[in-house]
Amino acid sequence: MAVERTLSIIKPDATRRNLTGKINAVFEGNGLRIVAQKRIQLTKATAGAFYEVHKERPFYNDLVSFMISGPVVVQVLEGENAVLKNREVMGATDPKKAEAHTIRAQFAESIEANSVHGSDSLENAKNEISFFFAGTEILP
Ligand code: RTP
Ligand code: MG
Which residue range is the domain that position 25 belongs to? Predict the structure, then answer.
């Protein structure tokens, strides 16, 4: 297995409920190391650009509004198989369908306010990490 990096975002529903530490404990407990992290307020332009791939989806405008409704924590997670590992730890998009031990099953409010984002492929992870972080901000 290869050591990979993936982009994670703790979404506004979770920062609002003071869940950053609990979510980070799940990452760290599953062998994902937080090698970069910052709390930021996304703008409509930034959130819109980040979710550009979903532009034609019916939930796009709502998703952008939700993502700018409060601060987010953007982070780089590193570990063996980090992209897939993080997707497993996050659980299904819809918390009702997520396995019980996952972040979304434990913390998400709805299919939209689902507490975390995680890159879905190694290629997207590289692009998403460079969207938010300079190389010098990542400290393994
Ligand atoms: P993410 O990109 O945030 O890691 O989540 P994902 O891959 O599990 O889900 P994706 O299909 O990429 O959708 C991105 C985000 O859009 C919101 N969403 N809302 N209202 C809806 O039916 C709906 N479907 C998706 C969620 O916040 C989802 O995480
Ligand atoms: Mg996705």
Answer: 1-135
Question: Closest-lying ligand to the alpha carbon of 62?
Answer: 1
Number of domains in the chain: 1
Three-state SS at 129:
helix
| CB-based contacts of 72, cutoff 8 Å, min separation 6 | 9, 10, 11, 12, 15, 39, 40, 41, 42
Q: Is 85 in the pocket of ligand 1 (CB under 6 A)?
A: no
> What was the ipTM of the complex prediction?
0.93
Q: Tell me which ligand sits closest to the C-alpha of residue 114.
A: 1
Determine the residue of 93, 104, 127 to mutate for testing ligand 1's pocket, defined as the one with the most ligand atoms within 8 A of the Cβ atom. Answer: 93
Q: Residue 58 corresponds to which amino acid?
A: P
34 is a domain residue:
yes
Residue 140 lies in a domain: no
Q: Is residue 24 a part of any domain in this protein? A: yes
pLDDT in tens, 10-58: 999 999 999 999 999 999 999 999 999 999 999 999 999 999 999 999 9
Indicate which CATH number applies to the domain containing 29: 3.30.70.141
What predicted TM-score, i.e. pTM, was given to this entire model? 0.97
